[in-house]
């Protein structure tokens, strides 16, 4: 795009718009209705169309998809993808530009066409982000199925008993304890913690994950899975052989001063230096009119509203779309009000403190909230939220893909008169 439109490295507004265009399409069909909250509205999953962006010289762009393909392109589907895997939307850091899309505007410009404007660009920082990885021991995951009355309770006891037995073997052999373990009962809403409602299901999958510094210790663990099917309770089946130990890979992210690097390209054996432009003040910019300029960008306080008339308690999903994604051991949960009238209630009902309390069984660190008035949205960034994140995590959902779904189950109170718009 820089070549096509002759943008310079200091045309920060255009670079920011183009970068956000890349953010929308980087995950393929997620930009055309994939992973959409209202999944039942998305036609033809079997033939989902990949997103296309039609870019303009001033940086504005239109998101669409090939004619005749599945999927759906609307402000809601594109908006959800904009909220995916982001922190502060006013400071989305990239090597070439800082993007501010807190005031982004999405307009339906045609059938399966959404025009995106209002992204602002600022000069980049003087550092690069480095994502390094290293091996820290090994991990192993075992699964088996438990069937019958009280299946969830039986499965939990089976998991605890297996780990207890393995620990007794470790002690007898003079081996150190596990570095970490996790027992999850899939099918009984274990990821919902105290908010689970499916505790009386009669078929569950028991998932036991363990991490240890010694691969041989995990071989002991693997050898104690199958015996549970004949020694513990009735209804154990689906034991898929001994689980294998794999390296536990952890991420280490840090900033590196750009001046310490000298990038270059090699073409036909010739080394060509690549200049890194210095920061320069952005050229004049006409901002998108602020929808709520007085609203603080980060806030955990309620928005003042008049007393609700005929209030009703409903799950958050009734008033908002949601999308979550990971950033190392952090997860973001972006929420977008379904209508403009519901935005003040979204801000009032879903505060930083309420989200932190609702996710306390999963999130160990702080929770920050950021506002996106242009998108009718709020974004929550939860720290120490994924058990280490990625390949380091023992969780069944190490990337936080289901975190928004958990938050969307929160109860909120809104005037009944506003609900027909979303029914």
CATH class of the largest domain: Alpha Beta
CATH overall fold name of the largest domain: Alpha-Beta Plaits
Shape: globular
Helix content: 10-25%
CA-based gyration radius:
25 Å
User: What fraction of residues sit in β-strands?
Assistant: 25-35%
Which stretches of 5+ consecutive residues score pLDDT under 50? 281-303
Summarize model confidence as the mean pLDDT: 92
Class per helix and strand makeup: alpha+beta
Largest sheet: 5 strands, antiparallel
Number of strands: 20
Architecture of the largest domain, CATH level 2?
Answer: 2-Layer Sandwich
**How far is the first residue's CA from the last residue's CA?**
42 Å
> How many individual helices?
9
The succession of helices and strands, N to C, reads HHEEHEEEEEEHEEHHEEEEEEEHHEEHE
User: How many domain regions?
Assistant: 3
């Amino acid at each position: 795009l820089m070549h096509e439109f002759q943008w310079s490295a200091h045309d920060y507004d255009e670079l920011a718009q183009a970068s956000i265009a890349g953010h929308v399409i980087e995950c393929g069909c997620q930009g055309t209705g994939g992973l959409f909250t209202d999944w039942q509205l998305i036609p033809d999953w079997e033939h989902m169309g990949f997103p296309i962006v039609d870019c303009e010289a001033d940086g504005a762009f239109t998101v669409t998809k090939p004619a005749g393909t599945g999927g759906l392109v609307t402000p809601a589907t594109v908006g959800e993808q904009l909220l995916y895997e982001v922190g502060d939307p006013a400071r989305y850091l990239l090597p070439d530009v800082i993007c501010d899309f807190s005031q982004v505007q999405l307009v339906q410009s045609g059938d399966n066409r959404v025009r995106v404007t209002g992204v602002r660009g600022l000069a980049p920082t003087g550092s690069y982000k480095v994502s390094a990885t290293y091996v820290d021991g090994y991990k192993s995951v075992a699964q088996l199925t438990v069937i019958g009355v009280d299946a969830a309770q039986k499965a939990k006891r089976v998991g605890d008993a297996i780990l207890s037995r393995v620990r007794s073997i470790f002690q007898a052999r003079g081996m150190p304890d596990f570095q970490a373990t996790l027992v999850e009962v899939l099918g009984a809403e274990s990821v919902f913690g105290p908010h689970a409602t499916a505790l009386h299901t009669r078929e569950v999958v028991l998932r036991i994950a363990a991490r240890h510094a010694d691969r041989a210790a995990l071989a002991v663990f693997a050898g104690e899975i199958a015996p549970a099917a004949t020694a513990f309770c009735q209804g154990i089946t689906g034991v898929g052989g001994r689980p294998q130990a794999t390296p536990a890979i952890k991420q280490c992210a840090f900033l590196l001063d750009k001046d310490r690097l000298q990038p270059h390209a090699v073409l036909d054996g010739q080394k060509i230096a690549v200049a890194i432009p210095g920061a320069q003040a952005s050229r004049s910019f006409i901002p998108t009119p602020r929808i709520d300029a007085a609203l603080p960008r980060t806030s955990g306080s309620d928005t003042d509203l008049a007393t609700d008339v005929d209030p009703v308690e409903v799950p958050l999903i009734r008033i908002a779309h949601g999308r979550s994604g990971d950033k190392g051991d952090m997860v973001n949960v972006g929420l977008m009000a379904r209508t403009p009238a519901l935005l003040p209630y979204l801000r009032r009902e879903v505060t930083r403190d309420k989200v932190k309390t609702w996710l306390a069984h999963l999130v160990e660190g702080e929770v920050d909230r950021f506002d996106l008035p242009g998108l009718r949205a709020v974004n929550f960034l939860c720290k120490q939220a994924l058990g280490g994140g990625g390949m380091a995590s023992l969780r069944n959902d190490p990337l936080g893909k289901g975190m928004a779904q958990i938050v969307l189950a929160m109860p909120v109170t809104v005037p009944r008169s506003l609900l027909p718009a979303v029914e």
